[in-house]
Known about the structure:
The chain contains 18 helices and no strands. The chain has 377 residues and is an all-alpha fold. The chain is globular. The protein starts with 14 loop residues before the first helix and ends with a helix. The mean pLDDT is 94.
Amino acid sequence: MDVNSSPRVPGLQTIAAREAVLLAPWAMRSADSRGRKYPETEHPYRGPFQRDRDRVVHSSAFRRLSGKMQVFTGDMGDYHRTRLTHTHEVASIARTIGRALRLNEDLIEALALFHDIGHPPFGHAGEDALNSCLADCGGFSHNRYALTIAEELEIRYQSFPGLNLSHEVLESQATRVDKQAAGNSPLLEAQVVDVADSMTYDAHDTDDSVKLELVTIDELAEIPLIRETVGRVHQRFGTLRGDLLRKAVVHELIDRQVTDVLQTAGQVLSQRRFESADEARRSGYRMAPSGDLAEQKAELESFLYQRVYRHPRLVEVRRRAQDRLHAMFIGYCRRSALLPPEFRARAELVGIGRTVGEYLAGMTDRYCVQQYELYFA
Length: 377
Ligand code: MG
């Protein structure tokens, strides 16, 4: 990608000049991008990954994330995270880590905003239901569906289907589908988004589940990570209770995880001194929390799994969502005239089963319930 040329708006610095000053040798440079499937002329003042970020933000699949649950459904209140606010928290934490490690923040932001775009309605319950509906035609994975959205389903331009994102964004997403896809480690920018995703949901699921009174901080403090976090909060701020304690625990939980990864990754990067993004990938290095923190996070995640994600209130939501999706899958396959015209056309290409799966996966939680009530209840 030619981002080295002089700026076409007088007085502006080129992307390449800016990156030469700011980025570490192991960062992915915009000038080294392998470009897009359908070649496009360079933008006068946005780099390729900035354009990718903007294309994601302006896509309809991205906007629909506001109507898709992360863990808790909309009828449980309006405090907790949706898939969209989760995505913004991931982008924010990932950029903090990326800036500290002198990685390409534009690429990180594009990848973070893109990472959950393929989630179907009703979170993992929805994904499991669609996966079983599509068992005969390859199953369903939200990570793979994100690529289908980006390459085929979003129609924003006359000259090509999809968003025509840069190779690096698509390839990084492909490594989420199949960890071995590239043969090498993912780009460090993609690894940052992965670790930030895990930090983010561990922190906000703790917050949301206490706020929704599914568990208490005292119960969570049975596990070492939360016990130590509460201890540090009390050390810094004195004895806090209620909402203030919960909020301080969340700040501290994010801070602990980000600091840990920066220390661990910072040490490796400063010792190994990769000379390029490619060399970092070939080395097989994988960014991860330190052993102690990884163990503590696993304990928190298994606590959340048993006490929150499997809470009777959520099990009921899960069951109802899956029953609906199964009924809708069978219903739309039988009555394809109910599909919008572009999906009826797509059925000719990829078959009715896959098409119905894709149509259902694009729905928000609310739209899914509405369509179910309208046609299949
Ligand atoms: Mg996520």
